[in-house]
């Protein structure tokens, strides 16, 4: 028993030293987007798997409307400028150098309205069931084909930014065209409040809340993967559930 205890102690000690050495090696590697390169490579590998599995037929669960509650108003980056809803416009930069278009809230509200009650999940670990309403991005693009060139080539990515460019997210086009991706202007039957992204925010319930940008100012269809606020700070670019 004494020999076995000593052997166990030595093996455990060597394993701990190896683990410490490995951790120090990992922390010493060059950083890629704010985290050690090997960790970023692992995140990217997971993201590729998630992107392969994502399908328009895979929907986030929906709930009875009476379960809807008001979520926390997490995050104020991009919301600090005074808001004038009447003067606000959605600026859309079309793919391939198409002319920039601007849309009022009334123009967006004139498009087909979609309502859904889904779960808003925060990367911090909490979640809330919320009823959202707005126009699906697919319906917006059906009316205004700003993501497609005359050759039928479609933009592979979408960039969204707040009016002050302080907060920004990127989506792959598969996620953007998911049937539950909304340009949302109502929450629980009422217009969005400023702290929840008025007058227009992104809702995409197959991703964490860090992707669901509040107060959209600019929507751009682009050829290269756009920058993302939290990915630049070490988080997974896709942030898929």
From TrEMBL:
Positions of the Oxidoreductase molybdopterin-binding domain: 83-230
PROSITE patterns: TAT
InterPro entries: OxRdtase_Mopterin-bd_dom (IPR000572), OxRdtase_Mopterin-bd_sf (IPR036374), TAT_signal (IPR006311)
Name of the molecule in the record: Oxidoreductase molybdopterin-binding domain-containing protein
